[in-house]
Amino acid sequence: MANSDLIKGEGAVRRSQGFVNYGKQFTGTGDGGTQFVRASVAANEAKLEKVQQTVNNAMGMMKNNLDLTGFKPEEQKAMRKFLISERNKYAYSASAISKLSDSTDPDYQYHVDIMNGVNNSFTNLSAQVKSYKANKLEFADGYNQGMYSNGNDGDLELENMSIMGFGDNVAPLYVGEGGNLGFNTSKGKVSFNDYQQPFMKDYELASGLASTANSLYTSHTQLSPTQENVIRLDLQKSLSRPNALKSIVSKDFSDDGFVFDGIDINSPDAKEQVIDRIIEGYRGTARAGYNEYQARTNKGVAKSSGGGVNTVNKRMANNVKKLDSMFDTPNVPKIISGNKVRWNPDVEIKDPNDENKMQRGAFLVGTEEIELTYDQMLEFINA
């Protein structure tokens, strides 16, 4: 057992000889510079705590509400890589700002700009992801329902298909500067901002054409020059809508009778060719309605006049049907009243209503193929 008196004596000696317990410098119970060291450590810890708190608050303000559902694993990887890179930039600047007390310091503003840029890139990426998803669904739905026009550029649509993630050659996705989506297509990099959505069939134009044709048929009158001028002005306006001309010249509404074979959409006068073709069709429609009405009303009178007139009107009505049916089979010869006749929609013939104008389309009669207008042909076979 240690002698307590010896221990006490040793302690007294140490005190008398100026013994210094250096361990107290670490425990904080000694004298000298202890309080200064503790104060310095505390101050530093406070700064670190401030940095931590500032960074945490700043990181809490970082916008990252990106929804990656519906994307393929490789696409998610590309976006996450961008998010991590931008997050690191944000964290670095947030840490740097916490050490700067002067908000007018250029370095302070520099890091604020970086943080704002990161937030903006996340906001932009989130918006683009949402837009891309919506466009992809719309793209698929449009083609499934046959709503897109046949006048769209085929090469562009193949590229759009790869961008939208369909087919065998899917364009890899990447995230560019500022959070902009992009795609590595077979033709190079394409930004989603430059994506051109396919345009729809112009149902408004087709509906308007059909409505006008129906009105002309049921008016039971021939198309007058004044009516033609009004219609021409309306068509000029309608065909000036973006992609209207491409839609109607394509096969969009061929099943509805709107066929414009032989017209080059890239021709400078393509619009005028289409308008001429439409007006010629309107002439035929009005003429058919007029003839049908004349045959029908004359037939009603014939009931009290004996069978002779009635027989004539039946023949007229049949001849009208024969001629009208030839519009559906251009350049296919038929025998009408003992003569070989074919309808050629591309022949230009003088307009019987206006000597200064030409109309497109004529009936070619006999081996010499004499050119006759609709009215002339009807008069010829009814004679």
Key words describing this protein structure:
383 residues, alpha+beta, three-stranded antiparallel sheet, 7 strands
Structure description:
There is one protein chain. With 383 residues, this protein is α+β, with helices and mostly antiparallel strands. It has 3 domains: 1-31, no CATH class; 33-198, no CATH class; 203-382, no CATH class. It has 12 helices and 7 strands. The longest helix has 39 residues, at 106-144. It is elongated, with a radius of gyration of 43 Å.
- In DSSP terms, counting alpha (H) and pi (I) runs of 4 or more, how many helices? 12
Strand content: 5-15%
Strand arrangement in the largest pleated sheet: 4-5-6-7
**Unreliable stretches, pLDDT < 50, 5 or more residues?**
1-34, 47-59, 299-310
For the CA atoms, what is the radius of gyration?
43 Å
Net shape? elongated
- Mean pLDDT equals 76
Would you report the number of β strands? 7
Helix content: 55-70%
Summarize the structure in short.
The protein is of the alpha+beta class and 383 residues long.
How are the SSEs ordered, and which strands pair?
Elements: H1 4-16, H2 24-27, H3 34-61, H4 73-98, H5 106-144, H6 154-163, E1 173-175, E2 181-185, E3 188-191, H7 203-219, H8 225-238, H9 244-249, H10 270-302, H11 307-326, E4 334-336, E5 339-350, E6 358-365, E7 370-372, H12 374-382
Helix pairs in contact: 3-4, 4-5, 7-10, 8-10, 10-11, 11-12
